[in-house]
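Quick start: what a row looks like.
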Amino acid sequence: MSTPLTRTTDTPTPPIRLVHLGLGAFHRAHQVWYTQQAEADPADPQWGYASFTGRGPLMADQLDRQDGLYTLVTRSGDGDSCELMTSLVEARPADDIVRLVELLADPATAVVTMTVTEAGYHLAADGSLDETDEEVTADTRILREVLDTSGKVPDTLDTAAGKIVLGLAARRANGGPGIAVMSCDNVADNGALTRASVIGLARQLDEELAGWIEENVTFPSTSIDRITPAADDELAADVAEQTGHDDLAPVVTEPFASWVIEGGFPAGRPDWEDAGVVFVDDIEPFERRKLWLLNGSHSLMAYYGQLRGHTTVAEAIGDEQVAARVAALWDEAARHLTAEGLEVPAYREDLIERFRNPRIRHNLAQIAVDGGTKQRMRAVPIMKAERAEGRDGSAAAFSIAAWITHLLRQDLITDTRAAELSAAAHDPDPVAALIAALDAELAADADAVELIRTHVTTIRED
């Protein structure tokens, strides 16, 4: 008979020195896992996480009932391995802003990490804070009142930047040291974009606060990678059978993991390099390799694979036509991935092996969400890079066309830009309108639009 997970006197419990926004499966399979692996003495850990959900309280409630403990299941063709994760000390709901501010004001807190998705930074097309965004304007109004008058922590804030700015204001008022705020989202140049989001909001509230953040807060850039499918009831049953514990919130992942970081940490950090994290002086080539090869092929398979009747990555990559389109996209991307140390051929081989892992059920529908933002970062840059060198970028154009075709077949668009994309989909020329929603420069290239339109026709006739 299985027993509930709970901390005991024998369970190592590190002090909280890390805060995370966006408590989900990837965070628990990646940042928490790396942190636990990096401890010099597992019996006396020094770095614990307090992690906050992105929206609702469900995951925090489930993990709180287990004192933050959960099982990480690593699946390969050889079977499962289960690891008890102990470095997540507190799981908090998104609206527990009082606790978040308390933690950010604490000088012992050294790093804030984030997985809030690309849309969670509320950025305009030029990479600056979108000051017209409704959630940004609402948070600005609330924070201005808090900082100018009451000083009371508000009951709600909608944006990650708003929560961080409030916490940094408390840290400044408390005389605390600098801190690192680090995005772990699949966004190119995510350190600079996080900086723009946080300082952009702070500048609307208090120039002196914005100046303090510029001088004392760093925004490291990261490239992260580990496939982490959504959990299901079967996973919980497997964990109970293999470990003897009932786990309300197990996580399943693949053996492969990667984390590349550029930037400094003024208040210190875990020895992540001891767990395999790579620190570099220039992260951009590694970001592009990951976004264009892994994420780019994921998006292509998510749309084209589903159109061909597949439900998982393993199924899609097993389809010769899908695999050929993936290889063509990689060929185009590889022409622009030439920096030293990228080892693109070996990286491609690893990706194929990972995609074919029979024990990882990575659902295409899960990957397909928010394509209106993802394809901006994945297929569009490849196509533009190819066209800038005199080639047509046909493989990347096919990926964009697959997204358009998939979207036009949806009764309900699942995207943070759903209203904008729905309007484009109902335009008299939906193909051109959806391309414009991705990238204005590409939409102004008549030949590029016609190439994508031709691919849409081909996919529809397939």
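That is the whole record. DSSP finds 21 helices and 14 strands in the chain. The CA atoms of residues 421 and 434 lie 7 Å apart.
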